[in-house]
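Section handout 9: paired folding examples.
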Amino acid sequence: MVTTPKPSDKLRRFYPTRIDLGIDVRTQVAARLNQTLAATLDLKTQTKQAHWNVKGMDFYQLHELFDEMASELEEYVDMVAERVTALGGTALGTSRLAAANSILPEYDLDAVDGVEHVTALAERFAAYAKHVREAIDQTDDWGDADTADLYTEISRTIDKRLWFLEAHLVKKSDL
């Protein structure tokens, strides 16, 4: 049986860099980034799950929306992984590592109609947004303004997408 290495097992090795952050800061930031990498990969695949399987009257609109959202997340996967490696760390981005280390719950594979998918994604985007905002503060406290800025960029888009999802869930009676 193959065992999945924990992110901490892979963070011991850092490569030389001239970035002027100490190894202790780079180690902490890389660990946080790898946690984000796992969650981002997971969120992307869960969004694709919704994209592939949505049914109902809003099929086309949601199918297209979910595909756009997954594409944006793919960009963030790359940005986060590249920041880990820029800091001299190793990006831990396999699907097995993402599944094992994601902060997100498993997707409801019985979801069919648009409201079920939108609700499931809204819950996951909200959890991810919270994770990203915490990472902004944490990396800023550690003295890595560049990583905090990366997280800020991600946060703006994730909040916008959460707004799009939540707008689909508003009923006339809620107004």
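Moving on to protein 2 of 2.
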Amino acid sequence: MSLEKILSISGKPGLYELKSQTRTGILAESLIDGKKLTVSARQNVSLLSEIAIYTLTEEVPLRVVFQKIAEKENGGEALSHKSTKDELEEYFFNVLPDYDEDRVYPSDIKKVLQWYNLLNKKGFTDFSEIKSDTSEEEE
């Protein structure tokens, strides 16, 4: 399982694994309870591999932020997303010191930590970049 197959669905809690495409949308499985659902093409769906966090100089891919959290926690769980706003901001500042405080809200930090902890709980700890098949064939 890679971040290329992990989805966030607007209006639905948690994260979902992309199982297959259907004629009218996609079939996804909840990482929380394993239930499958069909998601309409009209619903707002985001791939975690496409999400980035604003910093003062650039946008950092979510997988890099997850990797930094994993390094900070030695592969363990991060701070709970239910912590206070100040605790969340301080923790995130330790992980990504140059994050843009004007564009990254506490709700975004909560979501990132909640997602990281859910992935960690499911045994997903490899946040390294996806290697394309073509680059391996060229070597």
